[in-house]
Amino acid sequence: MSGTDKTAVSPATHAPDPETSTADADVARTPLYDLHVALGGRMVPFAGYLMPVQYPDGIKVEHLHCRAAAGLFDVSHMGQARITGPDAAAALETMVPGDITGLGTGRMRYTQLTTPEGGIRDDLMATRFQTHVFLVVNAACKADDFAHIAAHLPAGHALEVLDDRALIAVQGPAAEAVLSAHAPDAAAMTFMSMMALDIAGTTCLVSRSGYTGEDGYEISVPADQADALARLLLADDRVRPIGLGARDSLRLEAGLCLYGHDIDLVTNPVEAGLGWSIAKRRRVADAGYPGAAVIATAFADGPARRRVGLLPDGRVIAREGTAVLDGNGATIGHVTSGGFGPSADGPIAMAYIRADLAAAGTAVSLDIRGKARPATVAAMPFVPHRYKR
Amino acid sequence: MSTRHFTKDHEWIDLDGEVATIGITDYAQGQLGDVVFVELPEVGRTLAAGDDAAVVESVKAASDVYAPIDGEVVAGNEAVVDDPSLVNSDPAGEGWFFRMRVTDAGQLDELMDEDAYAAYIAGLE
Questions:
Q1: What span, in angstroms and rounded, lies between the C-alpha atoms of A35 and B70?
Q2: How distant is the Cα of A364 from the closest Cα of chain B, in angstroms?
Q3: Closest CA to A212 of A71, A55, A46, A49
């Protein structure tokens, strides 16, 4: 038995994201590293960090537990920073298409750092406060993102990287009960809001957000308090630790993009199906961010290709890179994320395909190991979102 | 009771008369994680040692199962097609993949026995 991936001699060495993995010699550890090892986490290099891909229960059990109760995720490898200055929201709007100046205090939004060609440098979460904007960006991109932002901020603004903070996500239907047992104000928070909360004597910055499709929270905590906070939350029977493997299957079922796979420098937000994240006033050529003209054209004319969901017939799995074929066997696109959805109870995938074939219900084929396998274009998410609106 | 043989690619082989049963080891299923799909070779196919024979997909990755020796496929285990989790729960028993009529049983002598395989995987850690 041997992996069919070029990199995978043994699945043990197969990190979920080999492109962004680095050699063991220069991998960092998050403040929760010792806890992951104590919990039996299988540690793999990912985006420059040694991270747990799974714990002894395995990816399927972890995934289903998160949807049934609550999962705890270490997302400390992601980048946290704040933009300060007289109008930090307007400063960020010079780099992203999202409506940041329209956010109320403590409200957050999903947006993208764009290129002059309308491509995506990274996707990120931005939260507006009176004195600054708080950012969370992807681990693999954070050094480039922060250099880019710092270099392009208008005069009088500065980027402060918060590398002394960990980030812990608690996701699932029991997340509210779990967190509000320690911080009662968490229960009243609405989706995409953020506030400072005291949890067991530590001031944390808590948002009601996440990337699993479930209700839940992300907790920015001082690095030296992260281990104690994680252990406190895990002491609740409803909470189990969740690794990168289930994090990926949860976000795929939720229809959410993974940077470097479903979106990248050569995809624009419109063809990626992220047009919802761009307010009307910013869909114009002179909106004042990189690529605004390209993105305005994509809105006006419609993109040539679109990100879609795919449901393969049967049980065979369509992995990233799988060619999508039309009825004549011609290639009409490629899978960008694909796997098995434990809650969907079957294979699911995301792909970019020709826009004229992108309607839900369209029959296509997938070229898997040389055989054409039938599949259907499907609406996303594959599993309904359960955010607390 | 025949001797079980093992390959470096983590297949096991039991020979009973001239028919060999092939599966993947407990070590392999543990590394793969939850198995969600198995594709078996067609009965009647002639395989040479090293040929792609079956495919096993876990939630993490797809892997090939190779024919460990030369022969003709005489049976596939439909039970693992219907319930791929059998590969995880009973890899050395009910989770077998396929059976071959062996052309040259002498090829088995080049494979590892149980002790040699145990030493081999210990060296992989």
A1: 48
A2: 21
A3: A71
